[in-house]
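Posting here for the record, re: NDP.
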Amino acid sequence: MKNYQMLIDGEWVNSSNNETFPTVNPFNQKMWATIPQASDEDVQLAVKAAKRAFENVWSKMNGLKRASLMFKLADLIDKNATYLSKLETTDNGKVIRETKTQMHFAARNYRFFAGYADKLNGEVIPLDNDELLDYTLREPLGVAVLITSWNSPVSLLANKLAPALASGNTVVIKPSEHTSATTLEIGKLVQEAGFPDGVVNIVTGDGKVGDTLTKIKEVNKISFTGGVKTGVIISRNASENLIPVTMELGGKSPNIIFEDADLEAAIIGAVAGIYAAGGQTCIAGSRLLVHQSIYEEAIEKITDKAKGIILGNPLDKATEMGPVANEQQFKHILSMIKKGKEEKAELVCGGERVINEQLRSGFFISPTVFANVHNDMSIAREEIFGPVLSVIPFADEEEALTIANDSEYGLAAGIWSKDVKRIHRFAKKLQSGVVWANTYRVTAAQAPFGGMKRSGHGRERGYHALLDYTQVKNVMVNLSNDIRDPFSIQV
Ligand code: NDP
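Prediction output follows.
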């Protein structure tokens, strides 16, 4: 049993009231570590430490030095990737073949943003009046609060921490109570890399900790990954102090197969979209839109694939789908499956808890396919965040677009077609922050990621993420010796 502590101002500490809570392995429901439940006082201390570190150290350190610390952190994450991935898999049940890749991808993100740390220049702007020199400075915001979800703690953290640090902000991190361990391990690597005390602080605990954090006046930026309901609460808190927010929220992404698609490849893309990570990803292609001429064939093929998915211990490299990450989520998925049946969608396969002897103690749900789903059914409208696919037929391009965009979400979308004109035409009309064509669930450090509509706003990864952690200052310098008229604005 491990007993974790929190990182505040360079010190590993227990909660000031000594409260802890257990963290549970979803594969066997066994408690394997304890995590501190931060008090309000701990949260205040963490923000104060971050503010001090921002004012006294981090904002004064040049970009080259900040970058070199970030490169060290990236090297340490790569070096410890096996250990970190085993821990993450133990904590959230995600298969090891994905968590291992995610660790190296997190390291890649720190390197990508480290490369920008000494290149955050402003610009000189030519004005109408050439007696004025005008330039901009790109400056950090100050203390950034980073709140993450349980499905990919290290990876989600890298999306936020890397641009925040590169652009000169200090941070207070609040991971999900279900999966705090690997974030705390990253804290250890931050220290090993040699970051100054207080630049990175980690407080753990339930939603109350996040709520307290997002109400503090000294916070200058909030970046949140989680559900819409929590996103609304945080946005409300942030608005009281006019704190800018980045919101990475849910999705109900359409994955659209046209009649001219390479069907074999599209079905693999559909599997990647909904059954990878057991569907517990914000970009899950949970609505599979299929042209009516190939609908029956597609249902048959996707059902075959779903039935063949290897469920098992997520630490085993052969396992393709692990358990659902926690009991609350497990119950939610089962309740959505029940709703699908009640609303008369056709359950083609799965739809139940796996109760064979080997998997009985874990939160396993069999890969589920619903056919003949209408876009107004709950299973097509609400985020399930599990291995449940809704297959919806369409007659033509116009109907596919109408169904795809008829969602309150707008995070990701996939198009499968051999017609290159259709791909570009369609990509432009989709209300979605991310569009994949003839592929699905592919990511890159350079490519901006984020949602439209109720999937959120702001971008992570890519150059655009840096903009969310900086502010622009304009400086205007008079170069002339002329005496001006003080009663008229000068242009
Ligand atoms: P939640 O919104 O429940 O929680 C997200 C984080 O917010 C957790 O750390 C949680 O803490 C914390 N939190 C809870 N209540 C508050 C509060 N009042 N104030 C501040 N923080 C709070 O989401 P889940 O963790 O259940 O994650 C699932 C959701 O995340 C899905 O909707 C999914 O789509 C979305 N997501 C989006 C991604 C994206 O990039 N767009 C990526 C991954 C997930 P605690 O867990 O301790 O309660």
